[in-house]
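User: My collaborator sent over this chain with a note saying "see what the structure looks like." That's all I know about it. Can you take a look?
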Amino acid sequence: MSAKIVTITSGKGGVGKTTAVANIAVALATNGAKVCCIDGDIGLRNLDVIMGLENRIVYDIVDVIEGRCRLRQAMIRDKRLPELFLIPAAQTRDKTAVSPSDMVRLADELRGEVDWVLIDSPAGIERGFRNTIAPADDILIITNPEVSAVRDADRVIGLIEAEEKNKPSLIINRINPVMIKAHDMLSAEDVLDLLAIPLIGIVPEDENVIVSANRGSPIVLNSKSIAGMAFRNIAQRLEGQEVPYLDLDNHGGLWNRIQRIAGKN
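Assistant: Without extra context I'll predict from the sequence alone. Here is the result:
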């Protein structure tokens, strides 16, 4: 067993990184993989809440790094999926408590334990960001289809290229076809043209995502949610499967074009 390390990042806060990590992790675990999530947002942890594990925390990532516990002691097992784990962030420390080399050592230790390690990156481009991309084999950039978020995502792409990492892939979150038609939102094609990186997923606006997050039950567990389906599709693409993109507006033209250009930038 040798895990693949995937970091999910952005630039702008509030675009859905933590929600994406939780849902992709649950989807991978549901498919039979052994998965460990790491909350890299030292001082502001939220991944435990989204996964419904906030009341089960004993140790955190800084405890592991500073030797107060073993790695396995900090791995919280999910209540629903026995092959899904979380290493939470520390709430009472800041990002200087962890270094990029610490994250590389931790990730390398996890490689022999699980199939996938998903790292939730903090917002911004400072120390926390550099910590979370250091061990990554692959990086997913998530953005909303709005100018400020796309601009920040473009800045992050440049930083990742400067670190000589593999070219990142793109998740476009909270797409609303009605707003696109009214020219009140960038289209997926617009975002792809601006960022020029391969697409791995388009997640539609879905009010149930907020409800599921508040309940600590990721939306992929809701079989009727189109956003949940989109996250399941992203997980399958990570595993190397070819999965068509959802036709979110029930008209083939736009989404046929997306199929053609996805991954070809």
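A starting point for your reply to your collaborator: The first helix runs from residue 17 to 30.
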